[in-house]
Amino acid sequence: MIRMGVIGYGYWGPNIVRNFHNQEGVKVVAVCDGNPAALKRVAKIYPDIRLCTDCKDITSATDIDAVAVVTPVSTHFELARQALANGKHVFVEKPLTATAAEAEELVALAQKKRLVIMVDHTFVFTGAVRKIKQLIDEGVMGSLYYYDSTRVNLGLFQHDINVIWDLAPHDLSIMDYLLPIKPEAIVATGASHYNGLEDVAYITAYFADNLIAHLNVNWLSPVKVRTTLIGGEKQMLVWNDLESDEKIKIYDKGVEVSSAENVYDLLVSYRSGDMWSPRVEQKEALGLECRYFADCVETGRTPFNDGEAGHRIVKMLEATSISLKNRGEIVYL
Ligand SMILES: NC(=O)c1ccc[n+]([C@@H]2O[C@H](COP(=O)([O-])OP(=O)(O)OC[C@H]3O[C@@H](n4cnc5c(N)ncnc54)[C@H](O)[C@@H]3O)[C@@H](O)[C@H]2O)c1
Asked: CA neighbours within 13 Å on the CB side: how many for 191?
């Protein structure tokens, strides 16, 4: 039995508690939140879970094997560090930490203590992303040209991070999982209209082999859009995460160049074939991820969404902050 402690029961914490609570071989022993009103909500649903307001009652409890950190980003490092130092496996919300140096320290500590460190990159456990991964790995798309995502809606404004640190960890972790290569450089532009934190931002990531990615993240959009286009040499794909059926559509469309000897003689023709929509598994991603965490703790296996993966994402986020400050300066990774 893996005995879990969860720190943070705000917006996302209830999903973490519910999903760990539902796992065979896992018991949520205690929940901590500095806000007593949050603890009242826990008591109503789970009368047997121990409640506390001091995180040390979780990170140093002798009856807890693993700790989930579901608090704002600025607190992740210290809470995860305490838990690891006391011999507990950790499941940390995205983004792993507020700086790359902190992420490195957590990775080293987990390695030294032989403990599992997993970052909640929820989207890589969705049926849609796993299907796209399968299509890319099987060569269905051909070599990749671009990754273009739009993740916009009205709110929720965060108080300690800008829209990039809030929303882009999703896209960056999806890219990190799907794409065969890692970005070489990042450019970010954006603007803030309310509290000094950017609420609209655009990120470009440059890769080798002419692969390029563009991410649009925005807290000020009148409508919610969650659409990603992936262009390949052989096929092009549209993933609309707001669709309940046919989330992914694959288009047999592309460009064929028939004569390239001389740029003026270039003959370009367009291929426009069939569109099809593969079946996508509908299981709750967070449930699969919590199961995977429990399995990694039980077997000692290193998860693919481990501290190193979290560190890669934080490095990219840090690069966006430098680029933003310098109005779109290119930052090499
Ligand atoms: N994976 C996802 O899809 C996803 C979705 C939403 C949020 N998140 C992440 O979850 C984390 C929390 O986000 P949220 O929206 O739930 O925030 P929130 O502000 O709604 O909740 C955070 C809770 O943590 C508590 N807290 C803060 N510091 C604490 C401390 N030191 N000890 C005990 N309790 C403390 C607060 O009282 C609050 O109830 C963030 O890292 C966020 O990025 C992930």
From this structure: 2
DSSP characters for 132-186? HHHHHHTTTT-SEEEEEEEEEEE-PPPSSS-HHHHHHHHHHHHHHHHSSS--SEE
This prediction has a pTM of 0.95
Distance 79 CA to ligand 1 centre (A): 12
Ligand 1: residue whose CA is nearest its atom 34 = 33
Pocket of ligand 1 (CB under 6 A): 7-13, 32-35, 38, 55, 70-73, 75, 93-94, 120, 122
| Residue in the block written with tokens 């925005």 | 218
Which of 12, 15, 31, 305 for mutating ligand 1's site (highest number of atoms within 8 Å of CB)?
A: 12
pLDDT, one tens digit per residue, over 105-117 is: 999 999 999 999 9
Which residues touch 5 (CB under 8 Å, ≥6 apart)?
Answer: 28, 29, 30, 31, 32, 58, 59, 61, 64, 66, 67, 68, 88
Q: In whole angstroms, what is the distance from residue 218 CA to residue 201 CA?
A: 6
Cα(76) to ligand 1 centroid in Å equals 9
Residue 310 class from Cβ within 10 Å (0-12 exposed, 13-18 middle, 19+ buried)?
buried
Distance CA(167)–CA(234), nearest Å, equals: 30
Q: Are 130 and 105 in contact (CB under 8 A)?
A: no
Residue 265 pLDDT: 67
Residues 6+ apart with CB under 8 A from 326: none
CA gap 115, 132 in Å, rounded: 31
Closest Cα partner for 70 from 105, 123, 18, 137?
18
Q: What is the pLDDT of residue 289?
A: 98
Q: Of the residues 71, 90, 164, which should be mutated to test ligand 1's pocket, given the most ligand atoms within 8 Å of the CB?
A: 71
| Paired residues of 160 in beta bridges | none
